[in-house]
Amino acid sequence: MSLSLISDAYAQSAPAAAAGFDFMSLLPLVAIFVVFYFFLIRPQQKKAQHQKDMVNSLRRGDSIVTAGGLIGSISKVVNDQEIEVEIADGVKVKVARAMVVNVVSKSHPVAEKADPSEKKESVEARVTKAAAKPKAKVKTAAPKKAAVKAKEKAPANKK
Questions:
Q1: How far apart are CA 114 and CA 118, in angstroms?
Q2: Exposed, middle or buried, 65 (CB in 10 Å: 0-12/13-18/19+)?
Q3: Is 80 exceeded by the pLDDT of residue 51?
Q4: Which of 18, 57, 61, 71 has an alpha carbon within 20 to 30 A of 89's alpha carbon?
Q5: Distance of alpha carbon 102 from alpha carbon 114, whole angstroms
């Protein structure tokens, strides 16, 4: 009789080798790859492409948020890698384009430089249009006399 708590281990015979390739053994691996592609890889590629398109479409006047949390508007596009952002009146900082996280509001494209005489005509045209509009009467917020008299005549009921 043995006083050992560990039982003896006996060697077993090796299982018979498979005759051919079993496709079912690769099926779980393929399924995991498909799931990873549709839930991780593809959305990440779409997000990266959206970020790249957003950074490439930055222009002067856009309001942006940087990765550091600065909020400002683009005052100048320096080159392909840098922009100049105005974060307060007269305070301008250079920021790497890649650090732009979000575009808060897009500006309209800046028009080509026009002839100054055309600009004066458009300003004069706006002034004449504004002068030609009939002005609406502005009502004042004066209290109605009847409502005031009714409040004065009403007895104060206090219990």
A1: 7
A2: middle
A3: yes
A4: 57
A5: 32
Q: Rounded to 5 degrees, what angle do the CA atoms 79, 66, 70 make?
A: 115
The answer as to whether 157 is a domain residue is no
Q: Quick check: is 100 in a domain?
A: yes
Amino acid at 120: K
Burial classification of residue 101, based on how many CB atoms lie within 10 Å of its CB (0-12 exposed, 13-18 middle, 19 or more buried):
middle
Mean pLDDT computed over 82-103: 92
Domain range enclosing 41 = 27-105
59, part of any domain: yes
Q: Tell me, yes or no, whether 50 lies in a domain.
A: yes
103 closest CA partner among 124, 126, 122, 85? 85
Query: pLDDT category, 106, cuts 50, 70, 90?
Result: confident
What is the number of other CB atoms lying within 10 angstroms of the CB of residue 54? 17
Say which CATH number the domain at 94 has.
2.30.30
User: Number of structural domains, the chain?
Assistant: 1
